[in-house]
Amino acid sequence: MSAVGRALSNTRRRLGAVAWAYGLRLLVAWIVASPIARTLSSSVAAHHPRGDAVLFDAGGLELVESLRLSMGVLSSELRGALLIGGVLGWLLLVPAAGLLSALADPERSGPAEWTRRGVQLLPRFTLGYGSRLFCQGLLIALAGVALWLLEPRLPGSWDERQKDLVLVALAMPVLALVYALGAFEDVLRAELLGAPSVGAALRAALGVARRRSSALLVGAVSASLCSLALPIAVAPLVARIDVSRPETWRLIAVTLLHQAVVFALVALRASWLALVLELRSRE
Amino acid sequence: MWRRADARLGGVLAALGLFVLGASDDSRADTPAAAAPPAAAAGDLPARIASYELEARLDAVAHVVTGKGSVSWTNASREPTRELWLHLYLNAFKNDKTLFLRSPFGAGRSGERGSDWGYIDVTRLSVRELGEDDLWPRAARTSPDDPEDQTDIRVPLPSEVAPGASLTIDLEWTSRLPSIVERTGYSGDFHLVGHWFPKLARREPDGRWAHFAFHPQAEFYADFGRYRVTLDVPAEMVVGATGRELGSVREGSRRRLSFEADRVHDFAWTAWPRFQERRERIEGVDVRFMYPPGHGANAAESVEAVRFALPRFNRLYGPYPHPTLTVVHPPEHARNAGGMEYPTFITTGGPWWASFSGIRAVEGVTVHELGHQWFQGIFASNEHEWPFLDEGLTTFAEVRALDARHGPASLISFAGLGVSGSAARRAVAIRSGHDDVVAQPAPAFSDFDSVGALVYARTSIILETIANVWGHAALERAVQGYAESARFGHPTPKTFLEEIKRHVGADAHDALYAALFDKAWVDYAVADLECVEVTPASGVFGDQAERKTSPREKAKTGTEKSCRALVRRKGPLRFPVDVELQFEGGRRERRRWDGREAWASFDARGADALVAASVDPDRSVLLDENLGNNSRRARREFGHRSLERLTYAAELAFGLLGP
Fold first, then answer.
1. B541 SS3 class
2. Is the confidence at residue A257, as pLDDT, over 90?
């Protein structure tokens, strides 16, 4: 069986852990979204005979009015959501670590064990995550400054589109590096599960990344493309179901569809992590 | 229709006045010969009051236009005059003390100040009929009552010009173009040359000169005439201009192009070596699209917009009278030259990727500027005095056109989100509704944001409300009537209001007047919703021997209910609206409310309780200040759909950015 096949098989066997990680993401998203939803629907939709279905009407008259009427409260809600989202987003490292542990663990285990492992790995994962974000931010900032300095020096004979496309093309390697840093962090996380120190894990991860770069690249890009394609593919279907109409089944159908997408995204991520573990185990 | 009558009356009065003048003033040999003022011409053709024959040479390196030419001007008023008024608009960009640039906070729609000054130097002005003397040294140096502005200049004449008399004014001048602040100027080797020659102010029939210093919030006003313009430019320049190109001759490193435009009141042109072109024949009009390299998608969007809107505007507002139309999309570095209208010449704008953004910005600006060909170009109202007649009505025409073409997602159509132009403009218009009067001169507004919110957005929303309430067909007839009356007629608000009264009715007229001139507003609200169980009557009934006392009984479950929805109208505007009552079990009932009183109670008795009420459920009254209080439910509903969608968005965001 190929590495990909074994990774997929491993993911199938750990669907419980996938569901657990998905559930926690849903919970966190719901906590972040609830106050905004309440505020948004309180001005126009709360008393409208059709409820907040009117916010989805074609033309957006009631949606724009809701935003206008609740803008003051909404902006402070959004700031609060960013703060809460940041903290809870950090805590999502626990299910991320728990899921990785579950995939790496040959024995079956349960949510308690996954949570215990997640909490145990949280400091190491935080260091890795923070370092990755810092490096990505630094790369993007440096690239931005470089492009900003370069833009006026591009040949005057080029038209606006040519200039923009050249700048985008020049930015692509940096974006690829930013993307690769994200993928590398997953390799590092896999090493962090058992390494005696972060330094040892980093050295091991670099070794795996160097030796298995092609397989890792194909796996990461495939998972990312699928993750991008899924929500896009579902969007037209959701538009056709049209929750601006009153029937409750429409809301239920869209909810199920969206949550199926998110579950699939978590499963895709789990498959990618399983592939990383598989490639690492062949070292 | 009153405007036409007024024009005829003006002609008769002027002719009588000329007869009297001619009889009594034969001795004044230096008075130009009098003739009947050309108040109206055959068919729908306007009289040529101010016709220009100009020659201009562009120095594309120094950004200087050297010009000379003559203006044939007729005193079309009923009064003689001993002065001319010239608008030297380019002097608005001469220094930071001019009326246009003096605000330290930035002014106009761009809010920018420019990096290079521009000005216009008149070097000679003489009038053939009054001798060959150069009259320019006698001209005022500055605008009236404004020693730091030189955009509105009085030129005294050595003798009186009788009503109906014509003058030939010879002019020589040099225009230094500014870096583009707004509309006109240069950016690199791109030139948009507007307001570049000394322009005669319009003289109203009563003898008033409609002259004004160039204000950052105001636009223009001028007489119709024929323009014949010869442009001498570097040979590599691609040139577009008002009117029809008569010919082009290369002379060494230069090129001379001739243009002619009749029945217009301004002339603008552009010169840039890098323009790409697309030519289309639409509704018998030769339409030329000029755009920067890489903007093919934007040009295609503009082409489709004109294909749709030109026939529509022809049908609604009368036939486009010119053989050509030039649509210019300036490069991004000259973006402030975009979004402007001149007769037969409009500018659009937007980055090269604008057509892929999901926002119909290029289409919107193209349709808007095309609409100006009627409301500004053909009708030619005084934009300085009554900006809403041009920008407001044009915005309404634009919104209606985009709605007709795209339906509800007429402004934004992106990722399943569709927003109409009405919804977006309403939000802007309501925000500023109490700030100021809509129908007032442009300089009277506090800033350009107010102009945008009130003149553009609120006028459009007022008219959409009238259309929704009293019928789109009726309003369409009124606007068509206005278009007929206003065609080449320099209309005033009265022209428009009369047509509204005639075609839509007195109530609509009153509402329109109050909304435009009195800051009138309206907010419909369901103030209360309640139901009680109906109990048998209790108390003392009858007298003396027949007196009977019925005890108060407790209502039984399932008995008849008495319900009411209390609906209020706040604010002085009155519109008839529907009120929808919704009962247990889903039954709905609509009732009409004339909206004349401040409140109304809608009562209902029956087995089903009233669970919700909504005033103006179809949202006809876009002027309604607050749509949040238009409905009331017995039980508030939590936003399940909003929560679902926002939760999904947060889940995706955590997947993308999270650990």
1. strand
2. yes
What span, in angstroms and rounded, lies between the C-alpha atoms of B653 and B659? 11
A97: nearest CA partner in chain B: B659
């209360």: which residue's tokens?
Answer: B528
Q: Given this model, what pLDDT does residue A107 score?
A: 81
Q: Where are the beta strands (DSSP E) in B536-587?
A: 539-541, 548-550, 561-570, 577-583
Mutate which of A99, A160, A266 to disrupt the B interface (most B C-beta within 10 Å)? Answer: A160
pLDDT at B3: 30
Contact of B126 with B134, CB cutoff 8 Å: yes
> From CA B341, how far away is CA A54, in angstroms rounded?
38
Query: For the whole model, what pTM was predicted?
Result: 0.90
Burial of A272: CB neighbours in 10 Å, binned 0-12, 13-18, 19+: buried
- pLDDT, tens digit, 9 for 90 and up, residues B88-106: 999 999 999 999 999 887 7
Q: Looking at beta carbons, which residues of chain A come within 8 Å of B293?
A: 159, 161-162
Interface subset of A 165-224, CB within 8 angstroms of B:
none
**Other beta carbons less than 10 A from residue B286's beta carbon:** 15
d(CA A205, CA A124): 14
Task: Tell me the mean pLDDT in the region A248-260.
Answer: 97
* Three-state SS at B406: helix
CB contacts, 8 Å: A64 with chain B: 419, 423-424, 426-427
Dihedral angle sign, alpha carbons of residues B183, B186, B187, B191:
positive
Q: Do A159 and B636 touch (CB under 8 A)?
A: no
> B406 CB near a chain A CB, below 8 Å?
no
Q: Which of B418, B641, B659 is the closest to A52 by Cβ?
A: B641
CB A235 within 8 A of CB B415: yes
Interchain CB contact of B643 with A (< 8 Å): yes
A227: contact with B, CB 8 A cutoff: yes
Three-class SS of B352-390 = CCHHHCCECHHHHHHHHHHHHHHHHHHCCCCCCCCHHHH
pLDDT in tens, B557-608: 667 889 999 999 999 999 999 999 999 988 999 999 999 999 999 999 998 9
Instruction: Give the per-residue SS3 of B246-313.
Output: EEEEEECCEEEEEEEEEEECCCCEEEECCCEEEEEEECCEEEEEEECCCCHHHHHHHHHHHHHHHHHH
CB contact under 8 A, B659 and A36: no
**10 Å Cβ neighbour count for B198?**
26
Helix (H) or strand (E) holding B603: strand B599-606
Name, in order, each residue with C-beta under 8 angstroms of B59's C-beta and a sequence gap of 6 or more. B65, B66
SS3 at position B71 = strand
Residue B164 confidence (pLDDT): 96
> Exposed (0-12), middle (13-18) or buried (19+): which is A226, by Cβ within 10 Å?
middle
- Phi-psi map region of B31: left, alpha, beta (phi>0 left; psi -120 to 50 alpha): beta
Q: Answer yes or no: are the C-beta atoms of B293 and B390 closer than 8 Å.
A: no
Per residue in A82-104, pLDDT tens?
999 999 999 999 999 999 999 99
**Closest listed residue to residue A153, CA positions, set A163, A145, A168, A143:** A163
B273 interfacial to chain A (CB closer than 8 Å): no
Task: Give every residue of chain B whose pLDDT is below 70, as ranges.
Answer: 1-44, 107, 555, 557-558
ipTM over 0.85: yes
**Is residue B479 classed as helix, strand or coil in its secondary structure?**
helix
Contact at CB, B641 and A44, closer than 8 angstroms: no
The pLDDT value given to residue B554: 76
User: Which pairing describes strands B610-615 and B577-583: parallel, antiparallel, or unpaired?
Assistant: antiparallel
Contact between B59 and B232 under an 8 Å Cβ cutoff? The reply is no
CA distance to A19, A231, A233, B303, per residue, from A226 (Å):
19, 9, 10, 38
